[in-house]
Design goal:
The structure is a homodimer of 393-residue chains.
Chain A: E1 10-15, E2 28-43, H1 51-59, E3 62-74, H2 80-98, E4 105-112, H3 119-131, H4 137-146, E5 155-160, E6 166-172, E7 185-190, H5 196-209, E8 225-230, H6 239-262, E9 270-278, H7 281-292, H8 295-302, H9 308-316, E10 328-331, E11 334-338, E12 341-342, H10 347-356, E13 359-365, E14 371-378, H11 382-390
Helix pairs in contact in A: 1-2, 2-3, 5-6, 7-9
């Protein structure tokens, strides 16, 4: 953790409130900016959206955000008006503990859908978290851990833009991952000064090319939230400096998105799908997503089977106009399909290559334009079925 | 098979050509009308479509069709210009053998994508099939068997409209099933006299509410074809008689579509998703399809887990405008979600009910209109993963 670059002015706490039965398991996180921060958010496009998402939608963009309270183990989704009251109450408790107005506090939840939050546990948990706030890396690590559900590891990405500006990103997600504007929970905190409009635009653009380009099974969650906080003072970034901030934000988000796909439930392979030469980036993304969401494509990789017909046929139903002659397909360095015609290849060698690599790249090249996309997904394994058939998650 | 109602004037043959290595396995089918038939077709909307689909698209609608030649074990898809020549050649061989022009003959293929057809095997196979043509039920049964791939059983549905008119339907399909205008291979033959325009309309309408309402994993095939042949002479059906013919055609197609979902690869449950109260039928279908294509929903059923949040959240990302309060959800007779609020239910009883029933009904009721849809899918099991990871299909 020593190499983490932490944005200044943020405090962290991750605690065990009791929401999860296992006393070893952290389940409640609090992040606080010691000064008002500009905040932007991108949220699930699911019609069924969780109570905390509604509260955040009401409250961002804003220029005086003071923090985020997050619980894991319960999504507070499909919980009706009581769920909404509970989400507001979480922000009230956090605001009271740190000394700000409730509307300056944001809230996220992740976990099982359809159960009311046990507020008798949550409220003292928030107070305990407020008492534990600290700026050190181990507290950030506890926050990154407290927001996890079926994830097997924390997902943190930090970058330093220059001596004065750093970005601290963390996220969670391992299933119910299907991109639609934003997916999963992800947070990026910076000590840069950014105008609210710039921050909102950068949040949208970063989500579009990162969190929206990852899928585990294409199931868009009710709780997807990406929050971007900037607490810097002084003149806001502009021109090339703002552009560099934007690029760094995208790099942090891309690293978090990739970490989510790499930790996909039960996965044995991280699959990077690169589509290039499409008419538009959106077309490239449609093709990548059709492949990423296909159980036939995902089981082929799990089976180390270079059954390229599955990839080509998935591209064909993505809703993008192309002719077979326009399309070529590589798995790693192996050319399998060459401008509409099967390419000769050594199936045993390709299969062995798939087995030897946990991360593999599938590349589809069209010749229609400059549209491109890099999309991450995972394979579909026995363990995915086991995890999702045997447990309520 | 004694209860099968066969349309008059059709001859059938199913043979082993050698396309499949197992000598016990039928792999080539020929269906012939002894007189010119009106023909309509509905085909895959996949941009990557197989050579036989291109040939059929050129040739239907028409009023002088004489038959269909079908091979299984090789899809003749993604095979370039040679594949197209091979598909034409199949119709030439069949036409020569029965004495008609090549363009009167239609062609279908199903199986692995991306391999050239072994024409040295196919051509004598077609001649052998032509020599074996017969009108009896055992020949129809051999045709229904010869078109199968990973299916575990034949799919036949026949109906008698009156003393003079019967419909003979058969289909194949167990995976790579994702509805888009037509899915899988399906054939309905009738001895009614139907105007070409009426037949084309009925084919479209029947596919929309049956084959387009079934999904195994949502992967639209390159070879999907539904052909409807009517070889009756005399005045074409009109008015109420035509309407009855339409309804009977839909009933036959519905039975075939349901049989495909019931035989889905590795499935332990047939899931009927009934959506009602949507603004339009199309909205209802979008919601049903989002659930049917969700690995999280499908593994929940496999695990006998009444984890209704997965169904509600899938409905939420279907692209249909509704509020949570508009939605209620039943699994069988168990109410799980009641107008936006979790309903109290006995989870153990629901789980036991799922385990006890191979066919289960999931019902979503909205209160926005009269739109409805009945959609069939299957659960996602270890066996689905095994079948699609371990074998090239």
């Amino acid at each position: 953790m020593s190499e983490w670059h932490l944005a200044r002015g943020y405090l962290y706490a991750g605690v065990h409130s009791g929401l999860r039965p296992d006393p070893q398991r952290l389940d409640l996180a609090l992040v606080v900016s010691d000064r008002p921060a500009t905040a932007a958010g991108v949220f699930t496009q699911n019609r069924v959206c969780a109570a905390p998402v509604r509260v955040c939608r009401e409250r961002v963009p804003r220029t005086d955000a003071r923090g985020i309270v997050i619980c894991s183990g319960n999504a507070n989704a499909c919980t009706g008006s009581q769920g909404l009251r509970d989400a507001y109450r979480m922000t009230e408790c956090a605001a009271q503990a740190i000394g700000c107005r409730p509307e300056q506090m944001l809230v996220c939840s992740t976990g099982v859908i359809g159960r009311l939050l046990p507020m008798a546990i949550i409220e003292p948990g928030i107070a305990a978290a407020a008492a534990a706030l600290s700026a050190d890396v181990s507290s950030l690590e506890r926050v990154a851990r407290a927001i996890l559900t079926t994830d097997t590891c924390i997902k943190v990405s930090t970058r330093r833009l220059n001596d004065d500006i750093a970005l601290t990103g963390f996220a969670k997600g391992a299933a119910m991952i299907g991109p639609d504007l934003a997916t999963m929970l992800a947070f990026v905190l910076t000590d840069a000064a950014i105008l609210a409009d710039d921050l909102a635009r950068i949040a949208r653009e970063a989500a579009a090319s990162t969190f929206n380009c990852v899928s585990v099974e294409g199931h868009t969650s009710t709780n997807d939230t990406f929050l971007l906080l900037a607490n810097g003072s002084g003149p806001p970034l502009a021109g090339p400096a703002l552009q560099r901030f934007r690029e760094t934000t995208i790099a942090v988000c891309a690293e978090l998105a990739r970490a989510i796909a790499a930790d996909a439930e039960g996965a044995s392979h991280l699959i990077a799908i690169e589509v290039e030469g499409a008419q538009t980036d959106a077309d490239a993304q449609r093709i990548a997503k059709a492949i990423a969401d296909s159980a036939l494509c995902k089981t082929a990789i799990f089976g180390a089977d270079p059954n390229w017909g599955r990839f080509v046929s998935a591209a064909g139903y993505a809703g993008v106009d192309f002719a077979e002659d326009d399309l070529s397909l590589w798995l790693g360095d192996f050319l399998l399909y060459d401008q509409g015609t099967p390419a000769p290849f050594d199936a045993a060698a390709v299969s062995a290559w798939i087995k030897q690599h946990r991360e593999i790249t599938l590349r589809l090249c069209l010749r229609l334009g400059a549209g491109r996309c890099r999309f991450y997904t995972s394979d579909l394994t026995y363990d995915y079925v086991r995890l999702n058939a045997e447990y309520t998650t």
